[in-house]
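Hi support team,

I've been running sequence recovery on a batch of backbones for a student project. Most finish fine, but this one hangs at about 90% for roughly twenty minutes before it completes. I'm not sure whether the input is malformed or the queue is just slow. I've pasted the structure tokens below so you can try to reproduce it. Let me know if you need the job ID as well.

Thanks,
M.K.
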């Protein structure tokens, strides 16, 4: 038949879309609290924490919202929304 099978969208523990069970909205990722004057220290702590969690790509623009018109699957779109929401919460 003429059906094209879309490759499965798989999230493993190395995927940018993987969320560890300890990841939760409002979770504290660093003890450094931004106080309006310590931006450099706070930025370094947050960058380090997000890099360790393999999520810095959502902040630095490396990964962008998938576009279903350009071949992204509904599963990938859903995964991006979930992880992006977790990071921005």
């Amino acid at each position: 038949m003429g059906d094209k099978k879309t490759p499965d969208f798989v999230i493993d523990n190395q995927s940018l879309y993987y969320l560890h069970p300890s990841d939760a909205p409002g979770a504290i990722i660093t003890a450094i609290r931004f106080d309006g004057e310590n931006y450099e220290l706070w930025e370094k702590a947050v960058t380090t924490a997000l890099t360790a969690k393999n999520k810095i790509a959502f902040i630095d623009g490396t990964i962008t919202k998938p576009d279903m018109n350009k071949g992204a699957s509904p599963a990938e779109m859903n995964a991006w929304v979930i992880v992006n929401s977790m990071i921005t919460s």
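--
Follow-up from support: It reproduced on our side and the slowdown came from queue contention, not your input. Residues 39-88 form one domain. No action needed from you.
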